[in-house]
Amino acid sequence: MKGMIDPTRLTTYLITVIALISTPGPGQTLVVTQSIAGGHKAGILTSLGLSTGTLVHTLAATLGLSTILAESAIAFSVIKYFGAIYLVYLGVKAILVQEYRLSESRVTQVTLTENRRIFTTALVISVLNPKEILFFLAFLPQFIDPGRGSIALQFLLLGFILAAVGVILEFLLILATCTFMQRLIQSAQFAAWRQRIAGAVFVGLGVHLALASQK
User: For residues 42 and 31, what is the distance between their CA atoms, to the nearest angstrom?
Assistant: First the structure.
């Protein structure tokens, strides 16, 4: 019985995915920024949120929802600007922080509420990025083989692989970032500025998203 995906095609897909994820982009910028602002856990939660967003986009592509968005200029613009406004809002909120107290426990862990906030923020940012939807529609079909079974299952498998590879590579990025920035991450004096830097990055990502075109 033939496998769902040809081994040669799967190998090519893995190499391509690793190359794409390794290329600096908004996702990596967000992971690094959150790692600097909140340490290993914040970086990992951000990565998991982004990867969960990848799975949401995969499901949308599988169900055909992505095609609807790609063909509708209005839908594309609504999601794009909503996502941009959300990013700018988060950025301005962080930049205007007045005081940031660093407790002893915060060096090693964040509260449950903050965990959810960090994860949810990354998830929403990923889901509200229409460029990712267009990427899925242009990229994944190149590795789909209708002669090897369900196209939907192949979509889901490729999307899961993309999300998994993303988490692995971003974990290495988080480890390197936190190791290099360890003193700053643990510095109470630099804590508020870390938040402001993160805020500036959010605003930049929001502007970048607002300027994105559908083509």
Answer: 8
Global confidence as pTM:
0.72
193 secondary structure, DSSP code: H
How far apart are the C-alpha atoms of 69 and 87, rounded to whole Å? 21
pLDDT, position 193: 62
Q: 3-class DSSP state for residue 103?
A: coil
Q: What angle do CA 35, 211, 13 make, to 5 degrees?
A: 60
132 occurs within a structural domain: yes
Could you tell me the residue range of the domain that residue 130 belongs to? 27-210
**Other C-beta atoms lying within 10 Å of the C-beta of residue 177:** 22
Sign of the CA dihedral running 75, 77, 80, 81: negative
Residue 15 lies in a domain: no
d(CA 127, CA 146): 27
- Show the tokens assigned to 18: 């690793």
